[in-house]
Amino acid sequence: MTVRDLSTSVPRQRRVLSVLVFAAVLIWIDTTILGIALERIADPRTGLGATPGQLQWAVGAYALLFATALFAAGALGDRYGHRTILVLGLLCFGAASVWAAWAGDATGLILARGLMGLGGAMMMPTSMAIIGATFPPERRAGAIAAWSASSGVGVAVGPLLGGVLVDHFWWGSVFLVNLPVVALALAGIAFVVPDPKLAARRRPDPIGLVLSTAGLALLAYGLIEAGQDTDWARTRVWAPVLAGLALIAAFTVFEWRSPEPSFDPRLFRNGRFSAGNLALGALFFGITGQMFYGNFYLQGARGMTALETGLAFLPGAVGLAAGSPLGARLARRHGVGLVSGIGLLVVAAAFFANLTFDVDTPLAWFCTVGFVSGVAMGLAIAPTVAAVIAVLPVDRMGAGSAVNNTVRQVGSVLGIALLGTILTTAYRDRIAPALASLPAAARDAAAPSAEHTRAVADALQRPDLADSANESFVAAMHVTAAFASLALVLGAALLLVAFRRRRDPGPSPQTPEVVLESV
Fold this sequence. Notes:
mainly alpha
């Protein structure tokens, strides 16, 4: 099939892009804004008293549904129209935000967050497909870059906005900020955005969706349960892990044999595609885990307010925004492997620098490490994504572009599950001696997390116990940061090896016939 030149006028292209960027900011704001509220949600006095496992699920449910539903969203957009699926995604996101804001318990919050992830998954590949159909080839790369830059805006705005809301209202207010964004985005889509469809529509992939979702959910469940039980020999730990791995393997085989796969594993036969995706997965594995423990470190161990925490994370967001365009320029001159590989190594070094953090560490040092890490992330992400996208067939613009985003979200799911479990296990091991002298009921109440320990310490008027909780948490954070750093080193090695010389860029793209329906 060939592509008909259906690109719109330049002014309208800009309007379409503006609406899509505005809608995309919603995804990235909600990726980061919950982190600011975690300390409050975990506190049994001011929040839901959520356990570490429940908090891991509150964060991980979003990434889990986001990762697995991307397959279906791209295919449904190709079949029923990308604007239609984008609108449904926004409506789903808005409804779930209301549910999350007034969730009465941790279970309700987890379910609402999963529904928000489903809405986000419906928005991302459809936006990419609309950009691909609206912009001619010579302007498409710049449009995708501008759309991708929305992540930097969301990462920067999310913690700051969340800090203001948590400090002045209740924790659920961080979700209500989504509603005006959803309303304005829907209005813009109705008047500006076209509805591209592939002339040859692909079938939905319900079997793939079920296998991938169930596999990742079981794997994450087993890893999180390991942190709660601290015993890998328990059936409810190893059985879900093995079952999850088996379902993921079955999903891969099913997609490989499918004539029209939503997730095409054949693409991974290309060395650069595989290395780039795995490296990005390792990066988001570390980023998500670090953000999880970083919020508890600043608000819990250091006693900072939510707004102060948001400001402390701002240098990292600024560094990411600065590093992304710099990485793209340097990669054109020195190659993706060198630039992105070194970027990942610098991020690994920044994570390792977390081992210098203590309850009294100067905040300027925390912000400096965050800024350096953010710049290095930008150096790594922008060139690697560009290299990975380059091998994706154009006729899979919807479902095909979801592969890269899916791998990153899977990295986020595993980062929360595994690094969160390491954090919980390490904390329980270190706080145990300080809890040994407490009555059994108080010991059980204090054991789940540092927030629970501080609540018991406050009730018993034991400031020494609160100090032990802070010291134990920081020690556990050091262990977790070391594991995150190791994952980044492995990702950097993959990039440096795969991109050490020029290779076949991958399968030749095929161009689909795209129809832009009138608005």
